[in-house]
Design goal:
Elements (H helix, E strand, L loop, with lengths): L1 H32 L7 H25 L1 H16 L9 H13 L9 H16 L2 H7 L2 H15 L4 E7 L6 E7 L7 H14 L10 H4 L4 H12 L4 E10 L2 E10 L2 H14 L9
Antiparallel strand pairs: 1-2, 1-4, 3-4
Helix pairs in contact: 1-2, 1-3, 1-5, 3-4, 3-5, 7-8, 7-11, 8-10, 8-11
């Protein structure tokens, strides 16, 4: 269904584009360049006004023609979102498409907006045929969190810490994973934070987290934000004083000391969330 709709949308968008750009656009372009030299500018403006009017009429016609297929595509997207397991959030492209369909159902869109929607509809085909919930439920998240805990404990370097400080404008948090000495190797710890942050958003059953944590686009930053919220006793609050435009402002930040140990303990708590909530009958 999603694949066939994508093909129909692509064909519809191409017919609409050809009408606007070729049949109308090139026709009036020829009329304008064929005007005799010295023609009054009003003649060119007249052709341009006629061209705009013709394109507007064609656009209105095609929006009416496409109303049915747009409604079908919207229904398919809604069904794909309905089939998402409760713990999985919509993807960014899901949100973008939903915003498009809200406008398109009211007739507020143009042909050049359909190409990304065509690709999006094609991406829905496997999601509808094979809902992702079964795959994530079968994955052994208990074992995965156990392994991550062991990997964090294996590093066992109390010199590694994470610092959250405001950027130079004092507007956004900037995280860094650092060592107390220059020769401290933080790369493996950062890689594990990347893995843990990715697992946070996929683990089943769902691990509770705030929207601030969930919406982080970098996995390792998501993990550090999660630690800051769920292990507050391990987050030392710092005040940062900054001079901006001649004024001194104060922003909050802080440090997570002994990052590997704090992360290992957090992995253990995440593992606890993977136990069944009910006893087998």
């Amino acid at each position: 269904m999603a694949d066939s709709l994508a093909s129909r949308l692509q064909e519809f968008a191409e017919l609409w584009r050809e009408q606007i750009e070729v049949n109308i656009g090139e026709s009036y372009f020829s009329k304008i360049i064929e005007l005799p030299e010295g023609s009054p500018p009003e003649q060119k403006l007249k052709f341009q006004a006629e061209e705009s009017k013709a394109k507007a009429a064609a656009t209105k016609e095609y929006i009416q023609k496409g109303s049915e297929i747009i409604k079908l595509a919207n229904d398919v997207q809604r069904e794909a979102l309905r089939r998402l397991p409760y713990w999985m959030k919509p993807l960014e492209q899901d949100r973008t498409a939903a915003i498009f369909f809200q406008r398109a159902l009211k007739g507020h869109y143009d042909y050049y907006e359909l190409h990304p929607i065509v690709e999006y509809m094609r991406s829905l085909a496997p999601r509808i045929a094979h809902p992702p919930g079964a795959l994530h439920q079968k994955f052994n998240w208990h074992k995965e969190w156990t392994k991550m805990e062991a990997d964090f404990r294996r590093i066992d370097d109390p010199r590694i810490f994470a610092e959250c400080a405001p950027d130079y404008r004092g507007e956004q948090d900037v995280w860094q994973i650092r060592g107390e000495t220059e020769n401290t190797d933080t790369q493996e710890c950062r890689s594990l934070c990347e893995l843990a942050g990715s697992a946070l958003d996929r683990s089943y059953p769902e691990i509770p987290m705030s929207e601030i944590v969930r919406l982080q686009t970098q996995h390792w930053v998501r993990w550090l934000c999660y630690l800051r919220e769920t292990e507050p006793e391990q987050f030392s609050l710092h005040k940062y004083h900054m001079a901006i435009k001649g004024k001194t402002i104060t922003r909050d930040g802080g440090v997570i000391e002994q990052l590997t140990e704090v992360s290992a303990n957090a992995c253990k708590k995440c593992r606890a969330a993977t136990y069944p909530t009910t006893r087998p009958s």
